[in-house]
Amino acid sequence: MSNTVVATNTLALNSYRNLKQVGSRQSQASARLSSGYKINSAADDAAGLAISEKMRAQIRGLDMASKNTQDAISLIQTAEGGMQEIDNMIQRIRELTVQAGNDTNEHNSTGTGDRQKIQDEINQLVEEIDSMADRVEFNKKTVLNGTYEAIPTSGSSAGDLKTAKADLRAAQNTYVGAEQSLDQAAKGITSAKAGFQSLFTDPEISKKLFNLTGFYSSEVSDLEAAITTFTSNAAYTGGITDKADVTTLVGLYSDITSAVTDLKTAASGNADSSYVDLALDGALDLLNGVGTAYDNYTAKEGELTTAATGLADAKVAYATVKAEYDAAEKTPGLFFQVGANANQGMNLSIASVKSDRLGIGNGNGVSNINVLEASGADITASLETLDEALSYVTTERSRLGAAQNRLEYTMKSLDISSENISAAESRIRDTDMAKEMMKLTQANVLNQAGIAMLAQANQ
């Protein structure tokens, strides 16, 4: 049932209300199409806006973390490149040391010999190693002088580790020296034994003793008996094997000495007695020489035993300090923020590669590799030090290479995550252009119709 009224134009009010609603939809569709966003204010989708903003923060964080990762890779490449050149210089120093170890090289006190020229180049290379360690920088950060090495907050420090390693190296050198000394002492014993034993097989000496028998048969018989007893002893026939054998032979030699004294007294003035004196006195000297050689051998055995104990202790000490250093909590050398959120970082330590840490200098450009020794054999001992320096540098380079590979994978992961989250955020916030164009077209048609109906109602 419809009422006819004049005061209230209900048709106009209805048309006006619908026209406002259409205008609102028209405005919303237009805003979404012009901005490209489905959510332009919190009123459009409060929950969607909150989710979108969190995603945007994550995306921007991931993009910056990817940039951080690239910067970290660049720093590592800079450090590793410097280490590569230091590695090359150590290789050259080692090559020069091998050359200097050959005794065909001249060395003289005037500083003009071949080895002096080799030493001059080694000194320059060590100086450049320290200079480069202080000079290689990334964004004003000196990366090779130990500034960004992780420092233990407790336990053994890098300095303790360096000292323990130096002690171990010294103990190894002492042990090798003791081994060589013992070998020389053993050769001395062999020589002394051979000289002593040859006296009693000398046919000339036997002949002279026989010639004396007809004149001094009793004295010669006593001497021959003493010599027979001496030369038939196991320590003589089986060979001298230890200091106890020498002591036994020295005791038996007293009988020979008494017989010689008797014979020399009886044969005084006989021409052949001088041969007896010479032979037996020479035997006494050589026997004492064997004893001296064994004394020396025994002393060298003691030195080797002491050196072996020292080496074992040094190995244990180094292992203890190394374990403490590895287990200790360390302040980070460098921290890289490689994630979008808190606690998503990576620590990196870059150790010093100065000459003092390498064991080839004092860290201030002064070399401790000396090739001016009198013997090439002494020079080659430096090769072990250089091998350790090479191992140290290559280990650090390997660590940096591993960190760089890790960061490259990290960067790829960050880029993929940013891409995927961007796609998800787009579905929440971006405009569906086709759908909004359809809504705008519909709103435009309804707006035109509404205006026409409002005009009709007003008429």
Q: What percent of residues adopt helix (DSSP H or I)? A: over 70%
Strand order of the largest sheet: 1-2
Work out the helix count.
13
Largest sheet: 2 strands, antiparallel
Radius of gyration, Cα only, in angstroms?
48 Å
Structural class: mainly alpha
What is the terminal separation in angstroms? 23 Å
Report mean pLDDT, rounded to a whole number.
80
What is the strand tally?
6
Assembly status? single chain
Q: Runs with pLDDT <50, length 5+? A: none
Q: What's the overall geometry?
A: rod-shaped
Beta fraction: under 5%
Fill in the keyword field for this structure.
two-stranded antiparallel ribbon, single chain, 13 helices, about 450 residues, rod-shaped, two-stranded antiparallel sheet, mainly alpha
Topology:
Layout: H1 10-35, H2 46-100, H3 114-135, E1 137-138, E2 141-142, E3 151-152, H4 158-199, H5 203-213, H6 217-231, H7 234-237, H8 243-266, H9 273-327, E4 330-331, E5 334-337, E6 345-348, H10 355-358, H11 376-379, H12 382-429, H13 433-458
Helix pairs in contact: 1-13, 2-3, 2-12, 4-9, 5-6, 5-9, 6-8, 8-9
